[in-house]
Write a structure and sequence with these properties.
Length: 221
């Protein structure tokens, strides 16, 4: 019995490590230390963890800044955006912020980079009312026609700018395909029926959401 438990425990340990301990995040501390950050205000000295975050931003396609409140995430995002722009990795970095933070975020960006060319917009600037599209068209035209260092939008303003129906359809189809494949994998791996049922419910919800989106009249703006 002792040997059996040992073998079982070993298999469980191996499986746990395979699922949860097999990946190690790259450490960007050295890369962050080497950053020169041209244009950054001389009065601001980034903390080591902020430099590390900026190095990660310019090295990976997607980054989560899971710091505690007050750790300087805004500065990390601003420095990261400016570095992406400077290095030619992004032509016009866009930041979407909570509706109440537009002025604060814009102000802090300019405090860090006083020469930055910014375009900021809230819901009042691009008119979120249905059918009121002139301001939205003007905003998009300004965004396209000028060489901005950053574009800052509130969540509400961002949601008001529609995309092509084909883009929505392609995105939803990719989500649905992912859920379907997850269901197949779960069934092949012998997952319990409850897990599979939850996935099937999620699939149905995504399919219904896609139908609602495709039935909605396209935004003329």
């Amino acid at each position: 019995m002792g040997l059996g438990r040992s073998r079982t425990g070993g298999r469980l340990l191996d499986e746990y490590n395979r699922r949860f301990n097999s990946l190690a995040l790259r450490d960007y501390t050295k890369e962050g230390h080497r950053l020169s950050l041209p244009g950054l205000a001389k009065s601001f000295t980034p903390h080591p963890h902020q430099r590390t975050a900026v190095a990660r931003i310019i090295s990976e396609p997607a980054v989560g800044l899971f710091h505690e409140v007050g750790a300087g995430k805004t500065a990390e995002m601003v420095m990261g955006a400016m570095e992406l722009k400077r290095l030619g990795m992004a032509s016009k970095p866009m930041v979407v912020v909570p509706n109440h933070m537009l002025e604060q975020f814009t102000r802090e960006w300019l405090e860090l980079y006083s020469q930055a060319r910014l375009l900021s917009a809230g819901s009042d600037d691009i008119k979120t009312r249905s059918g009121d599209v002139a301001a939205r068209r003007q905003f998009v035209a300004r965004a396209v026609a000028n060489d901005w260092d950053g574009i800052i939008m509130t969540q509400q303003a961002f949601k008001s700018i529609g995309v092509k129906a084909e883009t929505i359809e392609a995105y939803q189809e990719s989500l649905i395909a992912d859920v379907r494949q997850t269901i197949v994998n779960a069934q092949e791996q012998g997952e319990d029926r409850t897990t599979v049922k939850k996935l099937e419910t999620k699939l149905q919800a995504e399919e219904e959401r896609m139908k609602r989106l495709m039935d909605t009249a396209p935004d003329p703006g």
